[in-house]
Amino acid sequence: MIAAMMVATLSASAQFEPGTFSLQPKLGMNLSKVSNMPPIGYGKYTIDRSLLVGGAVGVEAEYQIAKPFSVAAALLFSMQGCQWEDTKLKNAGPKGEDIQIKDAKIELNYASIPVVANIYLFKGFAIKGGVQFGFLASANAKSSAKMGDVTKTADADVKSSFNKFDLSIPVGISYQVPNIPIYIDSRAIFGVTDIEKDVEDGDKNSRNQVFQLTVGYKFAL
């Protein structure tokens, strides 16, 4: 146990030495939405948007250029998109039945490559910013509606309605747990490009907006 603690401490210290390469497998969660995505309309009812919870998993490589400065690039599988609130539509059925709408969402899965610069303000704590390249892997629109004892679900492939490439700006902070190479990373990711195809109104472009929280184990190469 003492030997393992010494190795972990040395590995953590090595992250800040100039010329050090490191790898960091990481996983976590996304809270995402899409800007300008309208509420769902159903007759006189509207269903407002909510945040979609998704996962993020991948690996990050980092090079320590100087003691307070490094650059890092990662490859992540990132589950993003948007969701609408679960809602009961009173007397909305053909015979006055209530309709329960659940799990209405658009799931957008990306292979993301964020490239960021890290500035270490003090040991273990960094602020970061950069650019992220996203490549759409899949896109599905899903929903569930219940009326009486009948439940119907929908799951449609809508990848053709979305652009294959997404450019975003990630900014955030990271913190190393003291004495062990465990890193907590939080980022706000702001979409720059329109993710939907054939949108003519520049003021109504739909862009990804994501808050991402990951935990990684970082070790020197």
Q: By helix and strand content, what is the structural category?
A: mainly beta
Order of SSEs, N→C?
A: HEEEEEEEEEEEEEE
**Helix count, per DSSP?**
1
Distance between the termini: 22 Å
Mean pLDDT: 85
Query: What amount of the residues lies in strands?
Result: over 45%
Choose one word for the global shape: elongated
Rg (CA only): 21 Å
As a percent range, the share of helical residues equals under 10%
Give the low-confidence spans: 1-15
The largest β sheet comes out as: 8 strands, antiparallel, barrel
Instruction: Give the number of DSSP strands.
Output: 14
Looking across the biggest beta sheet, what order are the strands in? 1-5-6-8-9-11-12-13
Explained architecture:
With 221 residues, the chain is mainly beta. Helices cover 6% and strands 66% of the residues. It has one helix and 14 strands. A hairpin with a 2-residue loop joins strand 2 (40-42) and strand 3 (45-47). The radius of gyration is 21 Å and the shape is elongated. The model is unreliable at 1-15 (pLDDT under 50).
SSE map:
Layout: H1 2-14, E1 21-34, E2 40-42, E3 45-47, E4 49-50, E5 52-66, E6 69-84, E7 87-89, E8 99-122, E9 125-147, E10 150-157, E11 165-176, E12 182-191, E13 208-217, E14 219-220
Antiparallel strand pairs: 1-5, 1-13, 1-14, 2-3, 4-6, 5-6, 6-8, 7-8, 8-9, 9-10, 9-11, 11-12, 12-13
TL;DR?
By secondary structure, the protein is mainly β. The chain is built from 1 helix and 14 strands. The two termini are 22 Å apart.
